[in-house]
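MODEL INPUT / OUTPUT PAIR
PAIR INDEX: 1
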Amino acid sequence: MHLAAEHFVRSPQWTWYILFYFFFAGLAGGSYVVSTLLRLAGDVRDEPAARLGFYISLVATAICPILLTADLGVSWARFWHMLVDVTPGDTGLNFKSGSPMSVGVWALLLFGFFVGISALDTWARDRGGRSEGLLGAIIGRAFNLVGAIFGLFIASYTGVLLSVSNQPVWSDTWMLGGLFLASGLSGSAALIGLLTRYRPEAAFSLGRLHEADAYFSILELVLLVAFFITVAAAGTAGRTLPLLPLWLLALVGIGSSLVAGRGHMRVRPAGSSAVIARAGTDTLIVSLLVLLGVLALRAAVIFSAQ
């Protein structure tokens, strides 16, 4: 006999602030991970695209606390109190391992350290025209690798945060962390590819970015199917039906990345300008559809429980 899950808590009534916080968190963590993978691939011609990703991660990470603070409706002073306990006689770091919100805020702070140093290192490489940054080759790669671990956490954390709640749909599946991670990685690869339009030397990596995006999208599609299976088993799939247009838009984004990644040839900067321009037009359309799908997926998940 099947018993549907019962939920006893009031909907959080989240607004677009939290939606875009989830969106930019996925891009922040995902872009850092994709850039690290490009740098560790060992081909120096992938370096320009990797640098783009580190810059994207910096901007997206900086936006996250602004949106989170706005959604919580608190002042920056109260946000600071989430990090530091100012209670007289009990001052110190305000870290609560049992609080998903506390863990997330601290993880974002630590990730921000890696993002900031990596962006500074990237800026030094661009300004000085050097292949090795401030940290050197070996230390720099090790630093990026540790930062990428935090990036994986940040990109998946928002989904995990929903899963540990007691809201219908969110708590009825264990797929959200992986789903948001795969989606964030896909969106990040698409965004880096999109911005190669403004950094022609990064066009060499377009094929690799499209291919990676396709693999991420395959994983996203598998997890999305598993998501619907689990919420259907819990008896809450009906809550997702009113948001069908958003789910379809998410599928369009996934499908676009799969089409672009299929048999995509790498575009070399030494190739003809016409070939690069055509790839840029294709990348523009695909990237925008993928990013719109990433946003739609998060909107559908968030608002299905409200």
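PAIR INDEX: 2
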Amino acid sequence: MTSLDLRAQKLVICLGPGGVGKTTISAALAVRAATLGCAVDVMTVDPAPRLLDALGLEADSSEPVEVHLDGIRLSRRGGGSNRARLRALRLDPKRTFDSIIARYALSDAARDTILENRIYRNLSGALAGVGDYMAMEKLLELAANPDTDLLVLDTPPATEAIDFLDAPRRLLELLNSRAVSLLGAPAGLFRSQLRVVDVAARAVLAAFDRVTGLNLLSDVQSFVRSFEGMYEGFSVRAARAQDKLRAPDTAIVIVTTAESSRIAQAREFIGALESAGLRISAMVVNRVLAELPDVAQLSSARIAPSLKKKLKRNLADYAALKTREEFSLGALRESLPSGTALMVAPDLGREPRTIADLAEIGRSISDA
């Protein structure tokens, strides 16, 4: 792997739609970096059960867990293998949000008010974009560890790359919106400063509470007011996260497959990232077909003519698929921004079940 030097990076962010093996590639890159002598943390999002087993993770592993590298050959170049270690965790947006509240609430009372509020309990794991934003928060926490050489982040699946990268701004926009101001404003302000339509909105919500007995308005107001004094902290950390994304030792990697629909999505990702002023370091095309076998070997093989005929037909079909794949790779190569590496990960032929499988994938990733 020459174009993406993992030992020169502090952060590798893998982006891409669901179903292309992004989580597997993230884990494989982390294992590869560890074999090269780096102390690595990898954070995955909803890994498949087999991948959980390969990394030795439980379903609720929301804090870093040591991954044993037994049987994995480590590089001895420069003696870096003395630092080789790998830790993995599964992003849990709800637990991450809870830990942020516990860490940054202005008082124990404010913390308990938020964590016990039913609006918070229902929405903290369900709001659109919470997973994206919590990945950013966890990124900052893990990146602050001086004992970690490299952090590999598998981002939540998104229809557009900008969903993840823009999450801090979107959350702050929600917290600063007029609706939040309306719900959180003191009662005196409602009487003296709000427009008639705002007073009417409050009256409707109050009437809804009386009819249903849910006390929704008071719960929402309590939830919003309990965040007072914390908004600035969210803003500061969002700015730090944006700086981290643009740091020279951060590599943004888009993962895709060679299908035409996936290639089109990858191009959309590139456009979104460029519009946000972000540099793409590499594009990894996953599950690339193996090279074609030598047809001469088939012709000279001592097998039944009927079987040889079937194999030749299968080989012709495989060649057609390979030609189409190479055409897609060529088109993708021409559309990449200058300086972006195009890399391929050959199809393993099976689901990765062990750390050795991930190491094999990591070693096989190469320039296209």
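PAIR 2 NOTE: Confidence is low (pLDDT under 50) at residues 185-197.
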